Fold this sequence. Notes:
The model is unreliable at 1-37 (pLDDT under 50). The protein has 2 helices and 37 strands. It has a 16-stranded mixed beta sheet that branches. A 5-stranded mixed beta sheet has the order 22-28-27-24-25, with no helix packed on it. Strands 32, 33, 35, 36 and 37 form a 5-stranded antiparallel beta sheet that branches. β32 (387-396) and β33 (405-410) form a beta hairpin. α1 (53-60) crosses α2 (67-73). The radius of gyration is 31 Å and the shape is elongated. By secondary structure, the chain is mainly β. 3% of the residues lie in helices and 48% in strands. The chain has 4 domains: 43-90, Roll (Membrane-bound Lytic Murein Transglycosylase D, Chain A), CATH 3.10.350.10; 97-265, Jelly Rolls; 271-354, Immunoglobulins (Immunoglobulin-like, Sandwich); 358-451, Sandwich (Immunoglobulin-like).
Amino acid sequence: xxxxxxxxxxxxxxxxxxxxxxxxxxxxxxxxxxxxxxxxxxxxxxxxxxxxxxxxxxxxxxxxxxxxxxxxxxxxxxxxxxxxxxxxxxxxxxxxxxxxxxxxxxxxxxxxxxxxxxxxxxxxxxxxxxxxxxxxxxxxxxxxxxxxxxxxxxxxxxxxxxxxxxxxxxxxxxxxxxxxxxxxxxxxxxxxxxxxxxxxxxxxxxxxxxxxxxxxxxxxxxxxxxxxxxxxxxxxxxxxxxxxxxxxxxxxxxxxxxxxxxxxxxxxxxxxxxxxxxxxxxxxxxxxxxxxxxxxxxxxxxxxxxxxxxxxxxxxxxxxxxxxxxxxxxxxxxxxxxxxxxxxxxxxxxxxxxxxxxxxxxxxxxxxxxxxxxxxxxxxxxxxxxxxxxxxxxxxxxxxxxxxxxxxxxxxxxxxxxxxxxxxxxxxxxxxxxxxxxxxxxxxxxxxxxxxx
Length: 453
């Protein structure tokens, strides 16, 4: 059975076909009894001095009279006399449980929570209950956290069902089982020394079970992949417990109905390209230093260093990605490389500052006749916080040397020149920005201008 201390420290079973679970109604005081999830282990209880089956039934069983079932299962002759130190094997469905507190700590985009078949939009801070499903749409993200700081983060196009979210009163053992129906998940499980505790992520073809670690699970109809970042994760075939060592940190496996692959070393963390930590352009974009063996790269943006509040993600075959416009602020980016088998490598996290500072030239000016004079109106645009002044320069020819017009200190993004002779010119604008007590300079590109007769 999963997580028996005498058999395994970290264990898991691979299910060849998933068993539907009936969603439980929202828990108020304690979740109702339900059919056990596949692989639910019995509970081990070590008899203490003074224990009796009748007393244990009153304290810990849903129905006190079910002590007789425990008596039969453990071949005990007298329910009022138990040998101290004896280990009782108890059906988990007989035991009282209390719900584990879990809440949706962050989400962005279209995220829905399904309760008893009814979907509703997610709300920050809402309670997550046993039997519910969390569904993220395209470009959406969600993270829910449990009372021991364990958390599950779901990127876009993912659906997960909460199959178990309870604690067994008798052993104070948390039972947390999640069914990843499709998509991907990143899990950080706080270590729990209780040998009867469970933390499992199931997919249509696999189960990953841990005691405390950081790992990822991805699922499709006929394949699941587990990648271990910290700790170890057990993955086995069928309902037979794995006899080998768990998948260690830095390795991943692929599971299918045919079996589980040997552990494969994950690709190393990628390095961020030059300039990526200062984002002032119109759009936020990054380059990644290529990783040997990578066939794709995944970039995730978050508002926090723990990557709880994700808000954007891109998976590209090339080591670069663009995310569009982002509000000013300090953010975080996580980089991973994917190998030819689809396993996602070890992550590299960076902070970056988003401070929009854009200077763009307008179209080349056209002559406007004003009496005997011809006026040429030069325009440009600037975006971002701060106060700006501009410097306009006009050059004869295509080289930016010896300006024939050099006008600094402009407060407006335009300048009119009169009666320019025919010929070839080039021009550019520089901006001085004053923000937070500092001055920064930005020089726009050189633009060409042809004036005819």
